[in-house]
Amino acid sequence: MKPVVRKRIAAFYPQGFIDSNNAYYIVTEEDIAYSLEREVRMVLVSLKRVVFFNVNGLSIILDNLKRVRERSSIVTIGFCDYNQMQYDTIRRFFDKKIDFSLYKTFKVASLFTTPSIGGESILVWNENYEQRNLQSIELFERGYNPIVVHRKVDFVEKLKHEGQFDDIVEDTFIGSVGIVPFARVNGSAIIYTLTGYLDATIENQFDHAYHNKAIRTGFKLFIFDMKNIVSMNIKVIDFFKRIVIDAKKNEGNICIANLVESDSLRRIKNELEKIDIKIFKTLEEILNNKKLVAQLGGILKDENKANKNVTKKLVNHLPSFINATVSTLEMMIGVDAVKTGSIKLQDLTVEDGDKKLASSIGFHGDLEGIIILVFPFQLAKKSCSIMLGEEINTLSEVLDSLAEFVNVIGGRVKTHLAESEVSISITLPRTYSSMSDLFEAFSVNRGIQVNLDFNGDIFTFFLTR
């Protein structure tokens, strides 16, 4: 089926039914070659003429679409032109394993492939704060003026005033974002939050790809927060045995917090302790004890002490790193950045004064290195509050959110580099409550430092290896 190509999108328009009998013929090898020859930025399957589809049919189409990504990392794949029932069905079929994108209409998709002509205002709503922020940042980078709402009631109210915006982005999902709702980074620990009744189906809640990425990044302390668990049965032991084995291979530890005390769980608790899982009454009992966190592996150390110089190739792509970082911050806080001082190779230097928080995120692939971002506390607090759509105040809340915010920046860096046909994978971010914590965690080599003034708040970008 030959696609229709316009606005840098190759769109396929199947009709009727999509199942395992006909899905193979919707996107063929010839169709993929035809699309890529026209230098498209998206290859989408429209569902506007489809009356029925099943998971087997969509899976076959996606397997074929993924051949596009094998040839070009900058091309987005997915679906468009669906109704509410189709959207909900796709999300249910693939749950948290969505590594493709969804655009409510072809017109909405084209907003993400073509630059704005006159700074059009776009109303953006998504129940997932990460999605709505990522979509807004992409639109902002294309010259649009995104109007972000953080509550459904505010979105509904905005819809009553259509003259205030030019278009709407809702029921849209950008795939491969990378943040998993069940997990968060707290300093140098990963906290997993599971829900409901746990049995052998615990595997359905746990994302092993995320966990393996955390291990590769160097995390050694993994905490399971059980505050939302109703109960569990003995079948969870096999799952935790595998998690413990993986942790021990990397000198890590598995902990459980907030496990409800009951007669029915006493046997399970005993079995968990037998396989060397450490159980604590509360999360705070672990996180507020710095010495204990260090003993459990929660203080990450950089074991590679060799001096790694910043390469010429890394310097050549510095604009992609800077632009992705700056545009994300400018979009979030609504303040233009002003560069202060010169850009040069130096040791990381941060002026004393307001309390500073730091975060680092590594990358590897066609390029290898580490990005270190240093935030004044108030700037970090404001950025994270806007990202979440609610006020946060305490240091622990800001650190929890900062890792997710920096992950968004890492994702934007990856996208910007892909525009230059540079492919990287990013590690999970680490956060530090002070500069001393940062320097304690690893030896920072010389790198390229850029200081940016956000309305009086000095933010530091540092690129090193």
> Given the C-alpha coordinates, what overall shape results?
globular
Radius of gyration: 23 Å
Oligomer: single chain
Weakly predicted, low-confidence segments = none
What's the CATH H-level superfamily name of the largest domain?
CheC-like
CATH top-level class of the largest domain: Alpha Beta
CATH topology of the largest domain: Chemotaxis protein chec
Outline of this structure?
The protein is an alpha/beta fold and 465 residues long. Helix content is 38%, strand content 26%.
List the helices and strands and how they pair.
Elements lengths: L3 E3 L2 E4 L3 E3 L10 H9 L4 E5 L3 E4 L1 H17 L4 E5 L3 H11 L6 E3 L2 H6 L9 E4 L4 H13 L3 E4 L3 H8 L7 E3 L13 E4 L2 E10 L3 H4 L2 H10 L3 E12 L3 H14 L3 E5 L5 H12 L3 E3 L2 H5 L2 H6 L16 H5 L1 H16 L4 E9 L9 E10 L3 E8 H12 L6 H24 L5 E3 L3 E3 L2 H7 L5 E8 L2 E8 L1
Parallel strand pairs: 2-4, 3-5, 4-6, 6-7, 8-9, 8-10, 12-13, 13-14, 14-15
Antiparallel strand pairs: 1-2, 11-12, 16-21, 17-18, 17-19, 17-20, 18-22, 21-22
Structural features, described:
It contains 17 helices and 22 strands. With 465 residues, the protein is an alpha/beta fold. It has three domains: 1-114, STAS domain (Transcription Regulator spoIIAA), CATH 3.30.750.24; 183-295, 2-Layer Sandwich (Transcription Regulator spoIIAA); 312-464, Chemotaxis protein chec (3-Layer(aba) Sandwich). Strands 16, 17, 18, 19, 20, 21 and 22 form a seven-stranded antiparallel beta sheet that branches. Helix 14 (318-333) crosses helix 16 and helix 15 packs across helix 16. The mean pLDDT is 88.
